[in-house]
Amino acid sequence: MIEIKNLHATVDGKEILKGINLTIRPGEVHAIMGPNGSGKSTLSYVLAGREGYEITKGSVEYFGQDLLAMEPEERAGAGVFLAFQYPVEIPGVANTTFLKSALNAIRKQRGEQELDAMQFLKLVREKTKALNMTDEMLKRAVNVGFSGGEKKRNETLQMAVLQPKFAILDETDSGLDIDALKIVAEGVNALRSPERAMLVITHYQRLLDYIVPDYVHVLAHGKIQRSGGKELALELEKNGYAEFGVNEAA
Amino acid sequence: MAATTETVEQVRAVTEQKYKYGFTTDIESDVAPKGLNEDTVRFISAKKEEPEWLLEWRLKAFRAWQQMEEPHHWAKLSYPPIDYQDAHYYAAPKMKARPKSLDEVDPELLKTYEKLGIPLREQEILAGVEGSEGRSPAVAVDAVFDSVSVATTFKAKLEEMGIIFCAISEAVHKCPELVQKYLGSVVPYTDNFYATLNSAVFTDGSFVYIPKGVRCPMELSTYFRINQANTGQFERTLIIADEGSYVSYLEGCTAPKRDENQLHAAVVELVALDDAQIKYSTVQNWYPGNEEGVGGIYNFVTKRGACRGKNSKISWTQVETGSAITWKYPSCILQGDNSVGEFYSVAITNNLQQADTGTKMIHIGKNTRSTIVSKGISAGRAQQTYRGLVKILPKAEGARNHTQCDSLLIGDQCGAHTVPYIESRNRTARIEHEATTAKISEDQLFYCRQRGLSEEDAVSLIVNGFCKEVLKELPMEFAVEAQKLVGISLEGSVG
Amino acid sequence: MATTTTSHGTSPGPSRAPEAAPRGFDPATARPFLEQFDRLKADLPGGSLSWVRDLRDQGRARFAQLGFPTVKNESWRYTNLRALDKLAFQPAVAAETGVRFDVLPTVRAAGTSGPRLVFVDGRFRAELSSTAGLPAGVELLNLADALTHKPDLVGEHLGRLATPDDLPLVALNTAFLADGPVLHVPQGVEVAEPVELVFVSVGSDEHPTSFHPRTLIVAEDNARVVIVEHHVGLGTGATLSNGVGEVFVGANASVHHYKVQREHTNAFHLSHTAAKVGGHGVYDNFILTTGAKLSRNEVRSTFDGEHGDIHVSGAYMVRGDQHVDTSTFIDHAVPCCTSREVYKGVIDDTARAVFQGKILVRPGAQKTDGYQQNRALLLSETAEIDAKPELEIYADDVKCSHGATAGELDDQQLFYLRARGIDKEAARGLLIGAFLAEALDEIPEEGVREAFQAYVSAWQNAR
């Protein structure tokens, strides 16, 4: 589904990604773990197409297409979804309005009929219930005044509504207490399917107790240093990232 | 080859959508000769069969105007000198007499309003909107075409309640005592260059009188259309809300695309007596000129409301997206104790548009309150200024004002300026003013695009959010149209 | 606006150029000053230097064209100078007065001394001044001496920042330019001791007296200096102090420029300061005003290099029929600079305060951060505040905001204090003090802040 080859990226002339290789097939859940500053968020932004990152080398093929040549909204239309580490606040734009515009924009790109207000509301209500979200949250402006947990639930809701093919979860566990984490993880797990792949980016093993990955990769110094099964995460939890030349003494 | 054809097609589609009201109506018109002198004033007055006092009033205004200087020195606007002799001051579609019903109105005119989306046939309106969740279904429309009012709908129904809604030229004959009492009582004929010019040559406009204790059951609306080339439009609107009454009034404007600039200098006067409320909403979409700044309407407008009575309220809401130049400051004179003034404004300037707009809140009475919310969006090479005055006079015990002015810049070639004047002469008054200027955040844009929205849709969405506080003040009938307009006005401003 | 209260633009924006005879000026008011100038000019210091003569003549010519501004002038709409025309001001003559060294104001601890220049009615008084304690290379002297003995020291800078253009008071000052402080801090030198500049207005009992002090401050690259200006009055006759200051802040230099104006209530205090700040430079200006019948402080600062920092703030307390005008203009002419303004004022009796603050962000000045706040507290039925905070922005990647408030003391706060047993007047005093303290907090120099705080307390105690 997605094939990342020798990906190098720089920010303001500084090389952050120094040759990433990663192949993800439909149905798989991959976790990328790594210390702060290892390039985890950069990788997610580069895949989603955020400006300000210069790709100096390498390629990303997505369903046979050159992902890096696509506009952010084209990627979204093609099923790439990024759950933001810090979801952005948009004052004055109601959550429902935002979600409906996004869903219909994506449906349009896919050549599907746009949903009318009634159909949309029905769909969203179903999804919100599952995530333990209130109607009131839907009426509020996008992420404005949301708590950390509410923001992450909101990201999960968007994912549930937009039904991506390839979801990137960037530090979804940050800022969540254990109850909120469980709710979000349940929401994510409900979306696991043989057609959908996920890339879970996290610093801590904790999240992977709830979203159990098929593969774990360790990212440090802009490169994948080691890959393995879910047991690798446990090992990292015990030994830290010292093995990869990173000292994270707090 | 295919690619180029496609591009051309796309460009054409976009450009056409940008100003979809740019067509002209081919209709035979009665036009005054070009030029402006006392005879022009007499000509207009005679056309309207006006009483002597009104002609005298016009002539006084004209003489005052001749002594006045065009105010070029303070507004942040630049444009070549206007040749006031090189325009027609009266243009009217040829009609035998004032039509008694819509059936007598020229079908070409009806077609024009249909094309503009303005319903003039009462049955259609009722059929189309009735039943939508028990809302007051109808909008009564006064349609002003160039210099004259061509039709007013729902007149009979309104008359049953004692509401007078008609062309001002008609009101002069129908209820002269009201017109004579209030005309010029809020904006005197000596007020300012453009208002004085209007006083001399105004041709038509709407008149509204809501009797004591009456709540007007439907939105009243005037739709202004400039059609004739080389004509100035000088309409005059007068709304009087008698004690305890309420009215919501909507105003919309469009004009054909033309390469030369056209002058629109209107005057609107509102009078609210004890416990009365007037809500005045404008969606101004005059032709703004093309991408290179050629053509477009010069919109020099004086709008002022007087809260004469205690507990009265006047609320201005405006969405200004059109015109090459906008110069307008809808204001409130808060004379009655406990009276309330509001100004909610969205102004969007793109390409080479210029706008200098804002409000004045003059607090005279005790416990008077005012709220100002201004959202300015500047894109392309446009220049926009918020200019506002909050004045608290010594007797205005307990007066309150809150002002919020936010500007959004799109692109590095445009300008956004804020010039508030705050004058307080009463210590018990509390005034708060806040202003911010910023651009659309990259984070917001990326977030929206990651969710699948195109850059233009993302901008439109974010800007609509930015304007939300103001747009929610618009009556339902206008809100949807206004939201679309926000998106269309900014087309081509990003990317 | 759409009414008869129109105003007339002399806005310093990029769109307007000064005209020959702009509206909003009254050339007739220039005459008495011109006659005095023509009588005096031969005796003014530096008269042998052609560039000095040219400078004065240019000032004279422009003032002759303009005269004093009227309220029709947009930047003078709230401050009326008509009173100046009615008082027949005579130029100050250097006279012996009873000014003694030990009574002069200072921010220094008692018993200590440091560099200080004293001017009485605009003229330097060597016997009251001292340059002790300055690092080597720093020049601190008076303009008359500089013009006579070290013209090269001032020739490069004098009149380069404060140009007459549409500023008649600068023109008038430039015509009469004769004396005032000159401070030159060479590259890399940090002056540890604050430099105090004391201006004493004495005037005359016989006739109103005018003088035009001229200040020149040059801090070269990487220099640092703290300057404290004191303006006080000793006599009872009407005086007009029409000062102009030019402040050059080099790259990575920092100039902390504080001023306290406590002139007597027959004084007219007009002051114009123009500053230019180099890359990574800091200009920090604070003005405390309690004195004068009518005062206006105009501070215009421009960024001349990226990553500069301009900080202009102040506090004022006025009563009786005092009039205080603060007009600031910050020109973000280059990208990546930060400006901050905080002004707070207390207005009592029939006094009137004016605040006009403009931030201009020129095309291309991206990453500008501009902040401005001004708050006024009205203490009496008849006090008045007029404020005009203004943003003029021609670049998009900027963060600019301003806030303005006007009102009286908060009822709830007052009640809370009284409920805790504090009497009404004491509670009011406490709240007023707290209100002003917020402005004083803008002064990073502790010694100066404390001294200014003492002036605030003294004003409150005298209420």
TrEMBL record, chain A:
Gene3D superfamilies: P-loop containing nucleotide triphosphate hydrolases. SUPFAM superfamilies: P-loop containing nucleoside triphosphate hydrolases (SSF52540). It comes from the Bacteria. Residues 2-246 form the ABC transporter domain. Pfam families: ABC_tran. InterPro entries: AAA+_ATPase, ABC_transporter-like_ATP-bd, FeS-cluster_ATPase_SufC, P-loop_NTPase. One of its GO terms (molecular function) is ATP binding. The keyword Nucleotide-binding applies. Keywords: ATP-binding, Nucleotide-binding. PROSITE patterns: ABC_TRANSPORTER_2. The keyword ATP-binding applies. Belongs to the ABC transporter superfamily. Ycf16 family. This is Fe-S cluster assembly ATP-binding protein. The lineage of its organism: Bacteria, Pseudomonadati, Pseudomonadota, Alphaproteobacteria, Rhodospirillales.
UniProtKB/TrEMBL annotation, chain B:
Residues 152-216 form the SUF system FeS cluster assembly SufBD N-terminal domain. It comes from the Bacteria. Residues 224-466 form the SUF system FeS cluster assembly SufBD core domain. Pfam families: SUFBD_core, SufBD_N. Belongs to the iron-sulfur cluster assembly SufBD family. This is Fe-S cluster assembly protein SufB. It comes from Azospirillum rugosum. The lineage of its organism: Bacteria, Pseudomonadati, Pseudomonadota, Alphaproteobacteria, Rhodospirillales.
From TrEMBL, chain C:
Residues 33-196 form the SUF system FeS cluster assembly SufBD N-terminal domain. It comes from the Bacteria. Residues 1-27 are annotated as: Disordered. Residues 1-14 have a biased composition (Low complexity). Residues 207-435 form the SUF system FeS cluster assembly SufBD core domain. Pfam families: SUFBD_core (PF01458), SufBD_N (PF19295). InterPro entries: Fe-S_cluster_assembly_SufBD (IPR055346), SUF_FeS_clus_asmbl_SufBD_core (IPR000825), SUF_FeS_clus_asmbl_SufBD_sf (IPR037284), SUF_FeS_clus_asmbl_SufD (IPR011542), SufBD_N (IPR045595). NCBIfam families: sufD (TIGR01981). Belongs to the iron-sulfur cluster assembly SufBD family. This is Fe-S cluster assembly protein SufD. It comes from Azospirillum rugosum.
